[in-house]
Amino acid sequence: MIPSGIETAMLDSWDYFLHLAIVLTPLFIGASFLVGLAQEYLPPERVEELLRSRDHGSGNVLAAGLGAVTPFCSCSTVPVLAGLLGAGAPTGMAFSFLLASPIVNWIAVLLLFGLFGAGVTVAYVTTALGAAIVGGLVIGTFDLDRYIKDVRITAGGREIATDGGAATAGGCNECSASSANRTHRERVTAAGEGALSFFRDTLPYIVIGIAIGAVIHGAVPAEFLQRIAGPENPLATPMAALAGAPIYVSLSGMLPIAHSLTEAGVPIGTVIAFVIGGAGISIPNLILLNKLFERRLLAIYATTVVATGVTVGVLFNTVFAGLL
């Protein structure tokens, strides 16, 4: 016989798991479709072309905006970043793109909307983009170019150099021309097929995230979580920004966990810091950036991400607390 308390917790977790699965599955597929469309109409080469001619300031705004709407994961963000730096783009502008890319994207926006509502979503996107712009502007005031490694990265048929020369392509022109000649219907069809493929590939991470969130919701006492990450702990927000990194798998898996934490009474800002820290300084992301940055610049990037998570988290817990 299963004790009644454990049985109740298991049933509660199962109900919560089904609820999140029903809510998130259509949102994730829809977001994946938008990701595919963005890839069709705004490939990495086009992003680099748009940013190369921009200067410090307006370029940071555009870089953060493109980082948000382009659906690049770490494995594709780094080659785009290398292309920008290799073409002579200011380091600060490249940082605005790098900061915005992992924490603001179609999937994050739609899943946030489904889990937390419009108010939290708008506040998150606005503050995260603002932090990426400001972070890039601050980074741009320092002479950090010497901490960028001289490397050549091959991605998508292109050989990209960060040694100050323009990014070169092997076979890229043919690929771009082929993509440009596609009809709108072909692009939409490709985006739909890509959405289903992406959903299948990401499904294990979504299930893991929902399962962890369900266990937290049904089995972990709310008092325990509030004691560790509640408003009484002044270090809760910076600790959350650091704690997200070692357990991060994907943003789609982090948000169900974030939702269950807020359901248990953890302040929304602390949870947001947890999400931003996990997305920005995840172990896979740092490993890829280590190929491009010297350790000092990598440490500066990680510090900037944590500072962004803490700043946005504090804003949510104070300024936005009575509005959301």
TrEMBL record:
<protein>
    <submittedName>
        <fullName>Permease</fullName>
    </submittedName>
</protein>
<keyword id="KW-1133">Transmembrane helix</keyword>
<feature type="transmembrane region" description="Helical">
    <location>
        <begin position="94"/>
        <end position="115"/>
    </location>
</feature>
<feature type="transmembrane region" description="Helical">
    <location>
        <begin position="203"/>
        <end position="225"/>
    </location>
</feature>
<dbReference type="InterPro" id="IPR053166">
    <property type="entry name" value="UPF0718_permease"/>
</dbReference>
<feature type="transmembrane region" description="Helical">
    <location>
        <begin position="300"/>
        <end position="323"/>
    </location>
</feature>
<dbReference type="Pfam" id="PF03773">
    <property type="entry name" value="ArsP_1"/>
</dbReference>
<dbReference type="InterPro" id="IPR005524">
    <property type="entry name" value="DUF318"/>
</dbReference>
<feature type="transmembrane region" description="Helical">
    <location>
        <begin position="59"/>
        <end position="82"/>
    </location>
</feature>
<comment type="similarity">
    <text>Belongs to the UPF0718 family.</text>
</comment>
<feature type="transmembrane region" description="Helical">
    <location>
        <begin position="16"/>
        <end position="38"/>
    </location>
</feature>
<dbReference type="GO" id="GO:0005886">
    <property type="term" value="C:plasma membrane"/>
</dbReference>
<keyword id="KW-0472">Membrane</keyword>
<keyword id="KW-0812">Transmembrane</keyword>
<keyword id="KW-1003">Cell membrane</keyword>
<feature type="transmembrane region" description="Helical">
    <location>
        <begin position="122"/>
        <end position="142"/>
    </location>
</feature>
<feature type="transmembrane region" description="Helical">
    <location>
        <begin position="237"/>
        <end position="258"/>
    </location>
</feature>
<feature type="transmembrane region" description="Helical">
    <location>
        <begin position="264"/>
        <end position="288"/>
    </location>
</feature>
